[in-house]
Amino acid sequence: MTRTRAEAAYVRSATAFKNPTLDLLHGRFAPFVVAVLSVVFTPDRPAVAVADAHVEVAEAIDELRAAGLDSDDDRRIPAGSAREICRGWVRVGWLGLQIEDDVEVYRLSAHAVGALEIAGRAGGGRARVSRSRVRTLLDAVERLARDAESDPARRREALLEERAALDAEIAALEDGVVEPLDDDHLLEEAENVIHLARELPADFSRVAESITAMQRDVVAELRRDVRPTGDVLREYLERGRQVMQATPEGRAFQGALRLIGDPEHIDDLTEQLHAVLTQPFSRLMTPEQRSELDAIARRVEAGVQEVLTAQRRASHVITAQVRTHDPIRDRQVDDLLRGVMAGLHHWSQTRAPGRVDPVRTLPLADIGHLRRSLSDVRPAGAPEPLASASASGTEDVEFATVDTRAWGGPHYPELEAYVAGLGDSFDLAAAFAGADTETRRPVDLVGLLEIVHRNGLVETDEVSIVEAVRPDGTTRRFAFGAVRAQSPTETDADD
C-alpha cells in the first residue's frame, strides 16, 4: 500500500516523538526534568553517586515547592520521592546506572544530553545566520568535495590555489599590512564555536552507549551459544578487542580521536581558548558564554575519557564472560531459574495472600569427603594410625628432637643453673667463655645477658670479645660493651 506524502510525514513524526529526547521535552513535567537534570549534572560533574543524586533532587523539589511552583491547580512537579523520580528517569532512558569505583552512579543518557542542549539553545535565543556559521558550512562543503575528488590533477590544482592564498597572506603580513577584524565579527566566531561545542557531549554519550549496547548484545549471544567454549573463545575475545570497530559511532569516534586523543592537542586547545578570553572583544560576551568557551577543552577531555572507559569496561566484561562460559552450567542455571519461577507462580495461585515467613538461614550440605583424584577408584578412607615410638625405632626420633632443639632458642634452665654457681659478681665474657660447648651458642650469649640483666649488672667502657660455637661446629666472634654481673645490694653500696 502506497502512502501519501502526508501519511509518510506523519509516520516519521510519530516515530521521532517516540525518541526519549523528544519525549523528555514533550512531557508534562519537562520544565522540571530539564531544570533538575541541568542543576545536578554539569560538564565538570557528569557522574553523580546515586545517594547524592537522590538528596539533591529532593532539595530541588523542596525549593521549587517553597517557591509556589507546585500548586494544586497547576501541578508542575511529579509525585513521589526523589528516589522514585530518579528510578523513573532510568526506566524511560534519561538516566543510566553504572558502577564506578565500587559506587553506583547516575549518568545522563545521550537522549537527556541532547534534550538539555536543545532546551539550552531554545532558552538562549535562536542562533543567527552569521558570516562565521556560513563560512563553517562552506569550508565543510569545500573539504568534502576536495576529499571526494579522485582526479590527482584537480586535487593538485586545489592545493596549489590554497597555497597561493596562504603565500599572499604571509606576504601581506611581512609588508606590515594587517586587516584587524571588528569585535562584532569576533563575537560571531566565538558564538559559532560555542554552538558547535554544545553538540559534543551528546555525541560522546551516544558513542559510549552504543558500545555498552553492543557489549550487552555480545554477552546475550554468548549465553545463547551452545557451542563448546573452545570454539567460541577466539571469536568473542577478538570481538572484545575490536569493540570500538563494532559500531558506526565507534568507528567515527576513532577517526575523531586522531585529532583530539593526543594530550598535547588538548593542552593546545586549552591555551588557545584562554588566549581568546584575554582579547578585548570577550567583554562583549555574557558570563555564560565565557564559561562555556572556557569549558570546551574540559568537555572534550571528559567525553574522550567517557568513551574510552566504556570501551575498557566492554572489553573486560566480554573477556570475563568468555573465560567463564560454560554452556552446560548456563543451561542448568536457566533450568533452575525457570523451575523457581514456575514454583513461585504455582505457589501464588494456590496459597492465600498473607505474610510470608522469610528464609533466615539456608540448609548446609553434608559433603563428607571430597575425592581429590579420579585415578584411584577405591573409596576414600581414614588415614592409617600413627606408629608408636617403640615400634619404629626411638633412636631416630631422639636424634631428630635433639638436633632440632640445638638450633632453637637459649637453654635457659642450663644457663640459670650455671650462673647460680658463679656467685654474685662475675664478668659476662669470662662466664660465657667458661661455659660448656652446648651452652656457648650465639643465642646462649643473648640468654646469658638476659639472666644477668634480670639479677643486676654494671656496664663499663671496655670492650669484651667472645667466641660462640654453633651446633654444626662453626664459630662466630662477637664484640660488645663489657658487662659485669652485680647484685643490687652491691650496686647500692657502691653508689
Instruction: Report the principal-axis shape.
Output: extended
Cα radius of gyration in angstroms: 41 Å
The residue fraction in helices comes out at 55-70%
- Give the strand line-up of the largest sheet: 1-3-2
What key attributes describe this structure?
about 500 residues, mainly alpha, Arc Repressor Mutant, subunit A, disordered C terminus
Give a topology summary.
Blueprint: H1 5-17, H2 20-26, H3 30-40, E1 47-49, H4 50-66, H5 82-92, E2 95-100, E3 103-108, H6 110-123, H7 131-148, H8 152-174, H9 183-198, H10 200-224, H11 229-241, H12 248-260, H13 263-277, H14 287-294, H15 296-323, H16 327-350, H17 394-406, H18 412-420, E4 426-427, H19 428-433, H20 442-455, E5 457-469, E6 475-485, H21 488-494
Antiparallel strand pairs: 1-3, 2-3, 4-6, 5-6
Helix pairs in contact: 2-6, 6-10, 10-15, 11-15, 13-15, 18-20
